[in-house]
């Protein structure tokens, strides 16, 4: 039977959350937590894609319903998730603006990926990016009109943050009340980063909006964790049909494990997520560092080097002793920078999750944007170790593995570097790649020597 709310007898909760960046991860994480909240019947999600209409075409006819497949090593568990009640294309700017400006909406969540924020190395909006510069001019002109609300339909920012600002300005003008912004991307201090980026952009476009943001918008920081691989949607749809009887065009496959840690206020209310396992803390940095450095850092190492060893998925790469030794050495460095945690159980749990052979977490998918990921997941640990007068051999080996992946073409070459220039990975090439991650690493002779030794050892492995 084709999936729909009427067919499944599932009620439609009111739209009180708007999400930008609809994809598999949002549906495996924030939408799942909202479906499991104690007051789930009070919180529906209006979800907007990045730009593609594919999910609109798949999920729209199903009234936002989809099947979550928890894929454990010993079998699958199927669950119908009802929290998404409307699906729209991300480039439908008027619909997004209207949704965020609705006084019933209390929360705007984001999963737009690291690159979607379009920030420069110092965390400010990248004004060298043509789309960012164009949006600043577009919004400045729109916000200074006498009656910008009459022309909102004609204003179409190209960037995600540009669309967010336009929507927040509409909310301000209609007096819809305060709202919480909840970024859910794997970025350190993602709430602080988003808040500073929006403050910078409003400072360039609208003093009135800047003042309203400071008074009425809370930006929540989050640490999120649930491995959600890319899938063959048609094949998984067939499996769901056989197991449940529902013809689902947009299932999601994820691991049984999930984790969500949040820091910040929700001035207009929020779902009761705690029974679903969400944790609210006063200081999120240690939690997000643990996850970002250890899970995501290990994934980046496996993705960039595992492919050079002939592996295609995480579960195969982690069984390779060379890859596993790289991960364990990185975790040793991480542990020294996370003194407040007893990490033995966490490390064991990570290995178990990585080894799940039924989660096809593809290395090529993880290797995308690997330069940015290295800067966020490996470099801070290395710099922390060096700043305290210690060596960072695990980080050096991880960076060497990344260099070999870049040279082999399994990971993208950093901007401004030609592939022929790094073909030999000689001292000059290594220095160039180190500098692309952080000039301080390139300037540290001891660290550079560790990287050189690790390159040689990995080439010989």
Describe it.
InterPro entries: 6-PGluconate_DH-like_C_sf (IPR008927), 6PGD_dom2 (IPR013328), Mannitol_DH (IPR000669), Mannitol_DH/Oxidoreductase (IPR050988), Mannitol_DH_C (IPR013118), Mannitol_DH_N (IPR013131), NAD(P)-bd_dom_sf (IPR036291). It catalyses: D-mannitol 1-phosphate + NAD(+) = beta-D-fructose 6-phosphate + NADH + H(+). There is one protein chain. The chain is of the alpha/beta class. Helices cover 48% and strands 13% of the residues. The longest helix is centred in the middle third of the chain and has 22 residues. About 1% of the residues have low confidence.
Write the layout of secondary structure elements.
Elements: H1 5-8, E1 15-22, H2 24-28, H3 30-35, E2 44-49, H4 54-59, E3 66-72, E4 75-81, E5 84-88, H5 93-100, E6 107-110, H6 130-143, H7 160-174, E7 179-183, H8 190-205, H9 207-216, E8 217-219, E9 221-225, H10 233-244, E10 252-254, E11 259-263, E12 279-280, H11 285-306, H12 314-317, H13 321-336, H14 344-355, H15 363-366, H16 370-377, H17 379-387, H18 393-408, H19 427-437, H20 439-443, H21 445-460
Parallel strand pairs: 1-2, 1-6, 2-5, 3-10, 6-7, 7-8, 11-12
Antiparallel strand pairs: 3-4, 9-11
